[in-house]
Specification:
This protein is mainly alpha-helical and about 210 residues long. It is built from nine helices and no strands. Helix 7 packs across helix 9. Bound molecules: heme C.
């Protein structure tokens, strides 16, 4: 019995490994479904979408190439995405990246905006950062899809270059990381330049609870 199982287990393992490899290969193969048909199905799935929301169901060039490459584009496409998204970034006219961290915290907390019931908007649209990130340790309810941002500025010596990079990250997450799951808050017109500065202050200001 013992000998039987030492022989049979490796055989089963080899067969399973073969099947997994074949399955993975099949999964990576180009989709056989017409992308236009997929787009139509997605649009049809939102029959009650408010008119103002409908344009959001149409993927732009970056979203389309991320979808076509299952969010891991080859180098040349990744570089094209980064180039396009970098060019989409608008910078503060006064050259300053830090606004008011208190307002930044309010915006990071707020998940208002862009839902069916939020058209037309009746209050300021938020950044909903806590949905994916730990930010201050006072707030215990947060998502973990993104990395913790606790101590963000302090851990980076409050460097001006980092403040700029954080501004760029929030304005257009795909400029740094093509096909990121983080929204492009500035480029998609979710947040304004001033609102993004307020959130940068939340992460980068020495007075912010993030860095206390
Ligand atoms: C839907 C989830 C999601 C939301 C909402 C989101 N993020 Fe992110 N964020 C991510 C993920 C995932 C990463 C890691 C991948 C990447 O860098 O794009 C990330 C990365 C980051 C980074 C870089 C972290 C590092 O290691 O340097 C910063 C800064 C950041 N997010 C700030 C924010 C802020 C501020 C907001 C709100 C305005 C926000 N994020 C909203 C998912 C999200």
């Amino acid at each position: 019995m013992r000998m039987f199982s030492t022989v049979i287990v490796p055989i089963v393992t080899v067969v399973l490994a073969g099947a997994t490899a074949a399955f993975a290969q099949q999964n990576l193969a180009k989709p056989s479904v017409d992308p236009a048909r997929v787009d139509a199905v997605v649009t049809d799935a939102f029959p009650t979408a408010p008119v103002d929301l409908r344009p959001r169901l149409v993927p732009d060039e970056t979203m389309s190439s991320c979808s076509a490459n299952r969010n891991s584009p080859p180098k040349s496409i990744a570089e094209a995405i980064q180039k396009r998204e970098r060019a989409a970034i608008h910078y503060p006219a006064d050259g300053k990246f830090l606004g008011d961290w208190k307002n930044g915290e309010k915006l990071a907390q707020s998940g208002y905006g862009l839902r069916f019931t939020d058209y037309p908007p009746r209050q300021e649209i938020g950044g909903n950062c806590y949905a994916c990130h730990q930010i201050t340790d006072q707030e215990v309810s947060y998502g973990t899809l993104g990395p913790s941002l606790l101590g963000y500025g302090k851990l980076r010596d409050f460097k001006q270059a980092v403040a700029k990079a954080v501004y760029e990250k929030i304005y257009d997450s795909h400029a740094a990381f093509p096909c990121s799951t983080m929204p492009r808050f500035g480029a998609s017109k979710i947040l304004t330049v001033d609102q993004i500065k307020d959130i940068v202050a939340l992460l980068m200001s020495p007075e912010s609870p993030v860095n206390k």
